[in-house]
Design a protein that fits this description.
Layout (H helix, E strand, L loop, with lengths): L1 E5 L13 H15 L3 E6 L8 E4 L15 H13 L6 E4 L6 H4 L6 E4 L7 H9 L5 E3 L13 E4 L19 E6 L6 H11 L3 E6 L5 H7 L8 E3 L5 H9 L3 E4 L9 H9 L3 E4 L4 H4 L6 E4 L2 H9 L6 H11 L2 H23 L2 E4 L2 E4 L15
Parallel strand pairs: 1-2, 1-4, 2-3, 4-5, 5-6, 6-7, 8-9, 8-11, 9-10, 11-12, 12-13
Antiparallel strand pairs: 14-15
Amino acid sequence: MKIAQVAPLYESVPPKLYGGTERIVHYLTEELVGAGHDVTLFASADSETNARLEPIVSKALRLDHEVLDPLLPHLLMMDRVCRSAGEFDVIHFHTGCLHFPVFRDCSTPHVTTLHGRLDIRELSSLLQAFLDVPLVSISDFQRKPVSWGNWVGTVYHGLPEPLYTFRPLPGSYLAFLGRISPEKRVDRAIEIAVRAGMPLKVAAKVDKADREYFEGIKSLLDHPLVEFIGEVNEREKDELLGNACALLFPIDWPEPFGLVMIEAMACGTPVIAFSHGSVPEVMRHGSTGFIVESVEQAVAAVERIGEISRAACREAFERRFSARRMASDYIQIYGQLAEKRKQKANPTLKVFGMDFIEKDVDRVPMLSKQTM
């Protein structure tokens, strides 16, 4: 198949540091290319891919401090994709809802993976206006606020199996990885670690939008048990997660997926997560970690973490969250969309119990429309 992958421009594909959506686009794109598909990636010019790259901006917008309006480059990208739409069998968007008005009537099959939270009033109104646009969710929980949407599937994120190193022996510290923000609750992670008496390594970025929260909890990072590392790259992440005793995921929001959970599992590292959002879908309580409801339960889970088999965590990752499985799921959806388009372009008529393509009926003796 000839497939277009349309990525956000905020980060490169793959991102240099933080950037969950762009990483998933990268893993998916590379798996599709490896499976023999002809893939074109619309992304920033500093992206690295084995697909054909269609660069829109010279570098990721988050790294380009001269960009004043990030919406404008995305509009330019939509125009580029629209003008070349006829070259593809399917177009896969990862850019939210920005393209909806332009591609609603596009003759090329297209699908949109929504990567964020969907419990937003304005988003609900928008999706109601575009019920004809095919959507993919990244967890069943994610779609609950708009369960009536035009969902064609749920595809869990996946990672390349060699990306993370399985380490059978646990380390002596806890890990926190992600963003420092109110919904990720690094303050809660610190409380858990301190009460459990275990060191905590915090690898996280601080967005401008979360600067106020960061200033409010910054003093907590000075605790002798806490080591603040900042943003980390893939190699550093592999070492951080793989050498940890457990990953703390003490979220306080409706998490759409939680990529860091499967990153930890890929290393064999169990997860202690609060029961919000997609956590019960991704985790298996008592098998790949513990799902908890309070700080007290999380502290107790730290004490019991040795009950979790690190080999079982890795096995669960390979079985449920590989990039190969993710690509396979999407290929199935692409095929369904292409077949639906084919049927729409060539509707069939049932004549004497037999199906005929409508445009060919007049060519069949004794079965022309004039005799029907």
